[in-house]
Amino acid sequence: NSSVTTINLGGTTIGAEGAQYLAEALKINSAVKTINLYYNKIGVEGARHLAEALKINSSLTTINLCENSIGNEGARYIAE
């Protein structure tokens, strides 16, 4: 859907598996600019999946990953 530019999944506890599905969708989406993933327990594995999508998706400008237990390792994935 090219009209959706913001996704709010805050507090939905999608976990690493949900982050993986979201990452796959982000790889082919060029409309979403902002995603709120606050408190979803994605962990390091979920951060890794999202980081892979961010290498491909150039339209996403804001992502909230607060309270996801990604730690330093997950932050490194995202930063790369």
Question: Can you describe this structure?
Answer:
The chain is of the alpha/beta class and 80 residues long. It contains 3 helices and 3 strands. Helix content is 45%, strand content 11%. A 3-stranded parallel beta sheet has the order 1-2-3, with no helix packed on it. Helix 1 runs parallel beside helix 2 (43-56) and helix 2 (43-56) packs parallel to helix 3.
- Percentage of helical residues? 40-55%
Q: Give the biggest sheet.
A: 3 strands, parallel
- The percent range for strand residues is 5-15%
Average pLDDT level: 96
Radius of gyration: 11 Å
Gross geometry: globular
Distance between the termini: 28 Å
Strand order of the largest sheet: 1-2-3
**Class of secondary structure makeup:** alpha/beta
Low-confidence segments, given as residue ranges, are none
Helix-strand pattern: EHEHEH
Count of distinct strands: 3
Please, how many helices?
A: 3
Which key features would you list for this structure?
single chain, 80 residues, alpha/beta, 3 helices
What order do the helices and strands come in, and which of them pair?
Layout: E1 6-8, H1 15-27, E2 34-36, H2 43-56, E3 62-64, H3 71-79
Parallel strand pairs: 1-2, 2-3
